[in-house]
Design a protein that fits this description.
The complex is a heterodimer of chains A (379) and B (528).
Chain A lengths: L4 H36 L3 H11 L3 H18 L1 H10 L1 H20 L6 H31 L3 E3 L5 E3 L9 H25 L2 H31 L1 E7 L13 E6 L4 H5 L5 H18 L3 H23 L2 E3 L9 E2 L7 H28 L6 H6 L6
Antiparallel strand pairs in A: 1-2, 3-4, 5-6
Helix pairs in contact in A: 1-2, 1-3, 1-6, 1-7, 1-11, 1-12, 3-4, 3-12, 5-6, 6-7, 7-8, 7-11, 8-10, 10-11
Chain B lengths: L3 H42 L2 H35 L1 H35 L6 H30 L4 E4 L4 E4 L2 H5 L2 H32 L3 H24 L10 H10 L12 E8 L4 E8 L2 H7 L9 H26 L5 H10 L3 H5 L13 H10 L4 H30 L7 H9 L3 H15 L4 E3 L3 E2 L9 H32 L10 H16 L1
Antiparallel strand pairs in B: 1-2, 3-4, 5-6
Helix pairs in contact in B: 1-2, 1-4, 1-6, 1-16, 1-17, 2-3, 2-7, 2-17, 3-4, 4-6, 6-7, 6-15, 6-16, 7-14, 10-11, 10-13, 14-15, 14-16
Classes of the chains: A mainly alpha (379), B mainly alpha (528).
Chain lengths: 379, 528
């Protein structure tokens, strides 16, 4: 074993974070692009320029999401089991929405018919907006605690309903998710398209970022007031994974405890706000490449803000706080974490390098001329 | 108590979504290599027709690939959404190959598939060939890891039950990866995919030859497909995954039910080519037997026995009784009586815990099971013989027909007389569905044959479910069926449209419909 069990548990918490960040920056951006598609592309040709900025990358980008799911299964099997079955209809909604995207990208421009293309544009919009919203909503619910229980044979049961997921706080979290991805995508399109499309994208991207800043602040204030979870006592973190052994209470504002305990973590919410503001300014100054870098750091800030507020909780239970799942006790065995960690440190750098090669090779402003000259070789 | 309807619906949903997904995977697996072959010839010879072939078959590949990606997402979600106790119970072992599949294979495949379609103008010839090659490697590595995970469900090696965490935990990653069942399944499954892709290209090319259009294009495609297809079908048949059937207890059960081998025969056993299995009487009526064949196929020897169902039943009964005691000790350990003596006793029996869990269907407490419950559980420890017997024979039958089609196609193609053999070209067109039929029935043999287990001898399927309701499942199954039918209709329609268009869909101006159009314009020009 490279590391002791406790260290590996922490490293896996970070790695899941890395995968989520990878997902937001890449696939999240594709979702933002698809949400913007109908707003910034008025003609078919304009829309094709928008789609072709991500045409060669959306499939690879989507694997961040798939791998995050696989890593959740392997590293935090209890979380995967409880969250996916508990949020059953929300997950199914996301799944059916996600079906639309691969087909829409691939089929849309295969036929000339305006109706055919228009329908696929709607499919792209729905297929991207729904997952972006539901992921945020799910996060919002996790922060409030999820009504589930675990029995002595470690079978989880969910006692909530689908409608209860759509509460005001969760919807704000959902909109935070949508606006941050749309803002990020706006900077991408400002950079990678030209003329009118680029101008419109920049404008809508900045609007989205402004809404994001407001909602993120509102969400933060809300979290400061609402009940957070605190661990009173728990079994040895070096010992086997046992989610049934700890004592947990809830208290208003407890989610902010980590920030006062380790003030350095305040860097994350600060990063989110500052990056978003900088992105707006840079976009306005017509520096979209830098703006894209800052929206990326904004996404890191948002995800790490949620992670560090909740640490070590992953999926708190509102029904029975003591059985809340944490990154110490809902994890795989020492050996599995070790094997998976080795796989991750080998393959993540490889993935990043060949992905970069692909982006470099495909780097250009996608113009209407280019699409017209290569109408059968483009999406 | 176990709600049987709920369990059946959970299984039905999984079967529908897995079988549907598996309509699209095999073509992807094989097509990537066919594209590599075609593009390699293009890069080596510089002849543009091979580039056009790569692009055109690549278009059809893309139409199929999109649905494969979309429906693959379901599989990723479904273990958690519908089999949450399974996810908890074996996630420590089963999750690892799935996650590694993502990191090592799916990233590679998906990153380069986009470059394959849209990178033609931005990459050099060699770079693009490299992209195609990496896409093929990624796709096939994907299958490797998925089948490592699946092989573990059939033969769970390299793992042990831990009463403290109430789950299976990995003890050896190497054993998991080099699981012999996973290895043979991988070879069998990917070569079946190569067969599917070859039959697809062979059948469609034959249709073009029959129609007399784009002959140069069609005959070259036919060549590639007949050669690759013949090699692949030989690989599927000779390296059939039967060689894995002697490893692991549940594999033996599969073999016995496939062969309707009610009682152990003296070695070498005869192969029942065809017959009517009767589960109540435990006999096969009207059986046509081929002497020695089963012994040779299953054990690769003349002196090893193939265990029959009645002998397996006796073994299972012993293990169910042990499993009851194992469960009793598990309860003690879970309730804090974890004395060294209890732990030691549990450790000697824990391999049979799964068999004890089979009794949960009749009594939640397991330890109070009656004789009648035990006898029922013994009967439960086998899949039904009928579906196994017939599915296997349908699969093998399709394989044999395809072997003949590929062999003749290869032979006549090598002699350059394929155009005259119109009956063979027609046979190739009509053979297009065969690989898919064989593959779907092969899935039934492998996965229905695993029943009653989700993980062989470890976790019964009926315990592996999520805590949902029958209505939840009726709702989602309906949604899946409607949605999948729509996907299939759109995909099929688009595929047919492009197959009919043929290479003219590339808009190079060199192929059938465009030449026709150009001719007409010339005629019109001449008249005016």
């Amino acid at each position: 074993m490279i590391f002791d069990y406790e260290t590996l548990k922490f490293l896996w918490w970070l790695l899941i974070g890395v995968l989520l960040i990878g997902f937001a920056i890449t696939d999240g951006m594709d979702m933002g692009v698809a949400i913007l598609l109908r707003l910034v592309g008025k003609t078919d040709l304009e829309r094709r320029t928008v789609i072709n900025t991500i045409g060669a990358h959306w499939d690879g980008n989507q694997v961040w999401f798939i791998t995050a799911g696989g890593a959740l299964f392997a590293a935090w099997p209890m979380v995967y089991a409880a969250a996916f079955s508990g949020f059953y209809f929300a997950m199914m909604l996301v799944l059916f929405a996600l079906f639309l995207r691969p087909l829409a990208f691939d089929y849309r421009s295969k036929l000339e018919s305006a109706k055919w293309r228009n329908n696929w544009d709607w499919a792209l919009l729905v297929g991207s907006f729904v997952p972006a919203l539901v992921f945020g909503v799910a996060f919002g619910n996790v922060l409030q605690g999820v009504p589930f229980d675990i029995d002595n044979l470690l079978r989880t049961t969910y006692q909530g309903s689908f409608i209860a997921l759509l509460n005001p706080f969760a919807l704000i979290a959902g909109l935070v998710s949508v606006t941050m991805l749309v803002g990020h995508a706006g900077m991408w399109l400002q950079l990678r398209t030209d003329a009118e499309v680029s101008i419109r994208s920049a404008k809508f991207g900045r609007y989205a970022l402004m809404v994001f800043i407001t909602l993120f602040a509102v969400g933060g204030l809300w979290v400061a007031k609402m009940d957070g979870f605190q661990i009173i006592s728990m079994p040895d973190t070096q010992s086997y994974a046992n989610p049934l052994g700890k004592v947990v209470t809830t208290a208003p504002g407890a989610w902010l405890d980590n920030y006062s305990k380790i003030p350095l973590t305040m860097i994350f919410p600060a990063l989110a706000f500052v990056s978003a503001i900088l992105a707006i300014i840079l976009s306005k100054l017509n520096k979209p490449a830098l703006a894209l870098v800052t929206t990326s750091s904004m996404l890191i800030g948002v995800i790490m803000t949620a992670g560090s507020a909740m640490f070590p909780f992953v999926m708190p239970s509102s029904n029975n706080p003591n059985i809340s799942l944490t990154m110490w006790d809902a994890v795989s065995s020492h050996m599995t974490l070790n094997v998976m960690f080795i796989a991750a440190i080998i393959f993540v750098p490889l993935i990043l390098s060949y992905t970069t090669w692909c982006y470099v090779k495909m780097w250009r402003k996608v113009t209407q001329d280019e699409i017209q000259n290569n109408t059968h070789g483009s999406y | 108590m176990i709600d049987e309807a709920f369990v059946d619906l959970s299984r039905l949903q999984f079967a529908i979504t897995a079988l549907f997904h598996f309509l699209f995977v095999p073509l992807t697996l094989g097509m990537t290599w066919i594209l590599v072959i075609m593009e390699s010839v293009y890069v080596m010879t510089g002849r543009e027709i091979y580039r056009d072939m790569t692009k055109f078959w690549g278009k059809l590949f893309g139409i199929n690939f999109a649905v494969g990606v979309a429906t693959g997402l379901t599989m990723e979600f479904e273990f958690g959404t519908n089999w949450s106790y399974y996810s908890h119970y074996v996630g420590d072992v089963f999750g690892a190959p799935l996650a590694i599949e993502g990191l090592m294979a799916f990233f590679l495949e998906s990153t380069f598939v986009g470059m394959f379609f849209l990178g033609w103008q931005r990459l050099t010839k060699r770079q693009h060939l490299g992209v195609t090659f990496l896409m093929a490697i990624g796709t096939n590595l994907s299958a490797l890891w998925i089948l490592v995970a699946n092989g573990w469900m059939q033969n769970p090696v390299g793992a042990e039950f831990n009463y403290q965490t109430m789950r299976m935990e990995m003890t050896s990653f190497a054993e998991l990866v080099f699981n012999p069942v996973a290895q043979v399944k991988f070879i069998h499954t990917v070569s079946a995919g190569y067969v599917a892709a070859s039959m697809f290209v062979l059948g469609i090319s034959s249709w073009y030859i029959l129609k007399g259009r784009d002959l140069a294009f069609a005959k070259r495609s036919f060549s590639v497909a007949s050669g690759f297809g013949l090699a692949s079908i030989l690989c599927v048949i000779l390296l059939g995954d039967e060689s894995g059937y002697e490893v692991g207890e549940v594999q033996k059960v599969k073999l016995a039910t496939i062969e309707a081998e009610w009682h152990t025969e003296e070695a070498p056993a005869a192969f029942t080519a065809i017959g009517i299995p009767d589960s109540d009487e435990q006999v096969t009526h009207a059986a046509v037997k081929i002497p020695y064949a089963l012994g040779i196929i299953a054990t690769r020897s003349l002196d090893e026995q193939v265990t029959g169902i009645s002998d397996l039943e006796k073994k299972h009964e012993v293990r169910i009784r042990n499993g009851m005691i194992a469960y009793e000790y598990l309860q003690k350990l879970r309730n804090g009586e974890d004395t060294p003596a209890n732990i030691a006793k549990f450790d000697t029996l824990k391999d049979d815990l799964g068999y004890g869990l089979l009794l949960k269907r009749y009594t939640p407490n397991v330890v109070d099971a009656t004789e009648e419950h035990i006898q029922k559980a013994v009967k439960d420890s086998f899949p039904r013989v009928g579906p196994m017997f017939w599915s296997f024979r349908i699969m093998v039958g399709c394989g044999m027909i395809m072997l003949v089609v590929f062999a003749l196609s290869f032979y006549y193609n090598a002699h350059r007389v394929i155009e005259q053999k119109r009956w063979l070209l027609k046979a190739a067109v009509w053979s297009i569905p065969l690989p898919w039929i064989a593959i779907e029935f092969g899935w039934v043999v492998a996965e229905y044959g695993r029943q009653p287990w989700a993980i062989s001898e470890v976790l019964p399927t009926f315990l592996a479910t999520s805590s949902l309701t029958v209505n939840d499942l009726i709702f989602t199954i309906t949604a899946f069926v409607i949605f999948y039918i729509c996907l299939a209709v759109i995909e099929g329609w688009l595929m047919l449209k492009f197959v009919r268009l043929g290479p003219s869909s590339l808009h190079t101006g060199k192929y059938h419909f465009e030449l026709e159009k150009a001719d007409k314009q010339l005629d019109q020009g001449a008249q005016s």
